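Input record (one chain):
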Amino acid sequence: MTTRASRLLELRRQAQESHGYAPSSRWYTYLSNAINYLELAETAPAGIDQFRNAWFAIYNVYMMSHQAGEPENLTLSNWIGEMKTNPLIQQSARSFPTKLLEAAKQAEQDLFWDAEQKKWRVEGRTAVENWLKKRLQNQDLSGENACSSAFLIGRDLRNAVSHPTLNPNKAKVKTALALVGDAFLRLAEVAIQTTIDHPRPGTTGRATAYRFFLYPYLKNSDGFLSDYYLERLLPDQELGAFSEDQSREQLKLVQKELQSRRSSLVPATDVAVTITQWCQAVLFPTLGMQPQPGPRIVAEQAVFEPTFALAQGGRSIQPEYQGKAAGQELDALIWVLPWRESLDSKANVAGLEGLSTMEVAQQALVQADVAWGVVTNGKLLRLLHKASAHRPRSFLEVDLETISVLSSGYNPRPGSPSVTCSACFHKPPLFSVTARIAPGWIAFLLRASATAKRLATSSSRTSSRRWKSWAMASST
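The corresponding structure, as predicted from the sequence alone:
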């Protein structure tokens, strides 16, 4: 672990023990992710990867106090308003070199022009111009204005480097990003330390769950997965991927297979039993997935060995990939665990000691540049995405065992959730992009969850929302 990351982890440990902050709190979990990305930024080569990871660290700090339904820009703005009075952050922002501003200005056509919207990213571009103008006059911005300008520049650069049309190897862009990466690495370190020393109100206690309309079969512990988002994320073409009759028949098949195989699955501690007797025999065929044995992925930070992988266009998977070359041929990486093992159990991966299997999977998606990840023990299935891998515990989880049993009309575990959503995958849209992995399987699982909800309760709540009406249709 790097010096910066080690120092911040020790500061967080001391603060937690001294004040009794909850390990499940937003303060603790978001700081964990922020420090992980700070370490990635510190070890990455100067340029786009260093900047991206440094900004992911800052993102986890300011999204710590995000409120449900609140736009990200408003969350960032409110956070900047609080942080800009801090002397350490002011000092770090004002240390941005003039060469950085000059390089950003020279590359503004690439970094601040939104090719999709056909307009300038005004706030970042204006901040660079005004700051550079001050510097050329042998003056500087005030501490507060420097903070605001730095974070607005960072946000717009984050949007630029996330756009597929950006060429990071273009000379002007490469020069600017090399300077930006180092500056934001230092700014991220100070932002994390400030948050450790001065937690934002309401972030240090136990995280509470947002009760969704399908609670407890669909619940969200992070506040992002609201009715508003789901209605827009679930396109019409996905709704028709599984008909009501087809989903019922699939559930019956899963339940029948589960009953016949349970005696061998439950006591097994060998992952091979889960793979051969359940995943390959039942789960993957039910979801329309055709995985191949996973390759060895040699990345900068670690070597990843997923159990399976899904190739793009049905091509054959190579035995080994070097880092982000995997993303050019693979759609998804899949980790399979023994039936009884928790998805949050510790993984044994050199270089990533102490991380859970899910956290290892998130690291693999980022370092291998693969879009999707799945972690399953056969009965629980978690879907991860690279775009939200920088968010702590960002996933959609399905308890296939519970919903298949409930579909038979018997509830062995009243109140147990069948679908857990712990973030909103809104960039890119979750439900439409999954078609590349297994068309419609999210739609199928949501239908199944609605069926489980109806069978476990005496009545179902109704809604005028289009997607709610569809989801509950399978239980009428």
